[in-house]
Amino acid sequence: MCNYNLFIAVLVLITVNLPLETHGFRVFYVDGVENILALENEQIDIECKTNMPMTHCGFLHPSGKRYSFSGSTLSAGHCAIQIKVSKNDTGEWRCHIGTQMTGLEIIQNIKVRVVMELAAVQPNITAVHGKPKTIACATTKGMVPLSYCRFEPPNGQPFAINSEVTYKDPILGRYFFPANRSLDRGDCAVTIWKVRYEDVGTWTCGAGLDDDEEHVDFIQFEVEGLYAMSTASATGITFGVFGIFGLLAILAAIVWKKRHFLGARRPCGAGDAEETEAHELEQLPASPSPRRSPEPSTSVPRVLVESPSEPSASPLLRQSDE
Fold first, then answer.
1. Do the domain assignments include residue 3?
2. Same domain, 81 and 166
3. What is the rounded CA–CA span in Å between residue 188 and residue 185?
């Protein structure tokens, strides 16, 4: 019995003296992509998994550096590397997986971010106008419970929120705590019931941790289609203006051609006047009328020009000879 107690005591001492390696980093899946949030200099595991055996597996660092993996876990469809993460490791990692089937490799993307004790799950969010959207921050020291959670909208009044605020009784009629999150496991989140354009901007999430200090992070929030709609509206207006100008130009060309065509022909009124004037200037045909003897005052002397004749033929000259 004494030996047993001594063994238990030694085992407890060894256990206490062993360094306890705990993973405080958090892993979230956003749109099917794995996101790892970790503190600087923390040991993290970057893993790739499939439901079939692997023939080879390799990792591509955001800088372009390559890591290869070999081990018995390949046959189980699993490969992983462990790194001591730093800010240089921040970015998108890629895992290249080969299977027993010849063909294209399977590629999985993993995003790594080095953050503080509280970090936004998505630092940049794009939402659809009129649709719900969740904004979330989380602790990176493991699932450390939060004493409170609060948000500061870009164009609204700050508010505190927890799991008691449901969609049935939202804050300001539009903010509630998502059902799949919990302050007890280090989640600070809010769901916007219907996104508005006034939600565009920088959101601030704040939470109280076990150090009695408030930790914050920031989220840049955009609304899908806001600028695209503005661009489309501007484009539509531009095309509309060009269309109006084009229509006016076509109408002006039609009017100009019509006036030019009418100008080549004489207007009806003017043509009639010219024809009437021409008829008035023409000599009227002589109509039969009784002959009257010409009046002396109006008669015109008639001049006869005779060609010179022979002297013998002239009676005057013969008389003078006599």
1. no
2. no
3. 9
Whole-angstrom Cα distance, residue 130 to residue 125? Answer: 15
Q: Give DSSP secondary structure letters for 165-231.
A: --TTS-BTTTEE--TT--GGGTEEEEEESS--GGG-EEEEEEEE-TTS-EEEEEEEEEEETHHHHHH
Q: Is 19 helix (H, G, I), strand (E, B) or coil?
A: coil
Whether 104 and 123 map to the same domain: the answer is no
Q: What is the pLDDT of residues 79-136, one digit of tens each?
A: 999 999 999 999 999 999 998 887 889 999 999 999 999 999 999 999 999 999 999 9
Query: What is the tally of structural domains in the chain?
Result: 2
- Say what the pTM is: 0.62
CATH number at residue 197: 2.60.40.10
* Burial annotation 131-168 (CB, 10 A radius, 16+ → b, else e): eebbbbbbbbbeebebeebbbebeebeeeebebebeee
Q: Which amino acid, 229?
A: M
Do both 206 and 156 map to the same domain? yes
Last residue of a domain, which of 206, 227, 248?
227
CA dist 164 and 149 (Å) reads 12
Task: Supply the pLDDT for residue 254.
Answer: 76
Same domain, yes or no: 129 and 85? no
| β-sheet bridge partners, residue 68 | 58
Distance CA 234, CA 243 (A): 14
Q: Is the dihedral of CA 244, 247, 253, 258 positive or negative?
A: negative
The SS3 call for residue 116 is coil
Q: DSSP secondary-structure letter at 41? A: T
Same domain for 122 and 105: no
pLDDT over 60 (residue 173): yes
Q: Specify the DSSP element, H or E, that contains 66.
A: strand 66-69
Cβ atoms of 108 and 95 within 8 Å: the answer is yes
Domain encompassing residue 56:
22-114
